[in-house]
């Protein structure tokens, strides 16, 4: 599959049963809802996918199941978040073997690598595979920034093709375009900056609340790309209180609770995460319930 880094790519949650097994039935319900809404790819095993808690075998099952569900309609991308270069290379090899079409690649985990170490890490992985790669640049949550100078070093690797831009600095979209033209595809990785990023030239949106609200997410993207900014803004303003649930340390619990409200998920998480409780749960539920009750009628954008 020729992977096009564009459009809405949900960073899907991993569904678990009450007894902490993979819930592939609910997972399939959600993936089909994403496809019906018109998403452009599926990303597995990211932060929202509780990547750090998944076993290698669970990652295999998720890749194979997703490939089976999508039936070639959209690409399947797996996140790689490893502590060593050796493990990351093995993960990339496994991803291809299991049928994934691309990789989303975080800097090394735990050890705070410097710029040279981080760049070499990316190079080693790119050299080990022919799979297309999107670099996940999220210094806020992961402590390492992939700078423009580092992207300059990486541009000679043809399979490093895109960046998930999560620095929270929207001007980076313009900086990347000014320096590299169309060499790198840019996908916004922060829900609350998505419309602005797409309007400034980002190619796509790695989305979180799409897990619960796929049609609204796709509508915003398609309307902005069609130049129908006013209509997109109306939906975006409705969406913003919900999108803010994504920029929180308990984004997984928040978004899974939203999936329950829209009927395409459960709220089971893997410990040490726990479902929301008390006043925190009440506050998040109020936001979700208000959003569901006032869900907008979407314009025709197809």
TrEMBL record:
Name under which the protein is recorded: Dihydrodipicolinate synthase family protein
PANTHER family listed in its UniProt record: DIHYDRODIPICOLINATE SYNTHASE
Family affiliation: Belongs to the DapA family.
UniProt lineage: Bacteria, Pseudomonadati, Bacteroidota, Flavobacteriia, Flavobacteriales
Keywords associated with the record: Lyase
Residues in coiled coil: none
Organism annotation: Namhaeicola litoreus
InterPro entries with a match to the protein in the record: Aldolase_TIM (IPR013785), DapA-like (IPR002220)
